Protein: HDOD domain-containing protein
Amino acid sequence: MNSSAPTPETSAGLPHLIEKLLQQQAIDYKLRPTPHTVPGKQQVQACLLCDSIGTVLALFPTDHLLDLKKAGALLGRELEPVRAAQLQRILAKHQLNQLPGLPILFSSPCIVEQSLLAQQSLWLDSGLAGWSLELDQKSAHLLLSKASAAHFAVPLDGLNSLSADPAQDGQDLSRAVSNFTALRMRQRLEETIEIPPLPATAQKIMKLRSKPDADLMELADLVETDPSLAAQVVSWASSPFYAAPGKIRSVEDAIGRVLGFDLVINLAVGLALGKTFTLPKDAPEGATGYWEQAIYSAAVIEGLAKAIPRNKRPELGLNYLAGLLHNFGYLVLAYIFPPYFHTICRHQEANPHVQPHLIDQHLLGVTRDQIGSWLMRFWDMPSEISTAMRYQHDPDYAGEDHVYANLVYLAQALLQEQNIGEGAPMPIPEALLARLELSSEKASEVVHKVLDAREALRLLVTQYQHG
Structure:
């Protein structure tokens, strides 16, 4: 039996209690650095669930999604993930910084997804960041001997893929609405869910945007008709992120000397649309805030777009707007399905290894990406924006306006590597970089430059949240 003492392969040791429990159960294991090449069906995802009765440990493969309703039905209980503060107290008691997949550590009942028992070996989180326990089949069966084996998780590869036709999004959303509301007789989706119209300020700005001879003074006059927007533009230009020399004294000064016509057009639209729906009061614990995700993504996309060869570079302003609005479907999702949004949030907490849009697909049959894209088309926003939203999680998308969707994907993947964002790591295929004519080194350079200005960006996030 391997002990947890450091070897040439390891530089970490298990806490004494875990090592002692494994030895008492005669469970052979190897403590190794967490690999990235082990198939998801052999990697064990652990989630501690609870209700008024107590806790339950759920173990399932990382290529599956834990279905809370199925897990609850299995035990006849209403289960939700243990809240972060309580979980941290439990882990601290055992000197751990991650939840290990070890039933012997808890007095709670344990349920295990049936397919795990068929694997020749399993890899479990050890409770120490970056380290895993490798168990052969015999040891795994011994570890899980008192667990209840059942089917309560859903294979990720079984979830429906995105339809090729964006026109299908409205039908998918209508079907989801009819499943979760009593308004089943209405025919028109926009009547059923009572989507508000495009804000008046955004309408005026979009008209100005399409005017070939529009100038700085026209934009300044339009911005000044909205005191909140005017204050936002001036404070934005005054931000350390732009490091403008001297004091910004007016909207005209902010546009002409610092931000530029194009950026202000898209900032204003993003702000106006962001105020259409309020941020939901419920949210998944540990998730990156909505505006933080939006502004960091927009900044990275702006940098990536400028790094593309000039003759292939897409419209910079639309790229920035695509970044600001990429997760807009999250706000609309909370607006359309308020009672069910709680369930979506809890599933996101129970499945931190799964991209949120896949959770939407499983629970609703439609994703936040589809919902956001549908609304952009309904509001007659530029097609580049609706395309960027809809295909933002498809690294292989090479259709019309693909550069906008590809840049949103790449920005999210790069930020996720820096722990900004949610869900499973998003691989960056060489084909994606080639399509954008970017190198991985250049892309990395862009994201690190943005993160070097993290404090200045946080000020912008605060301004957006309270603007």
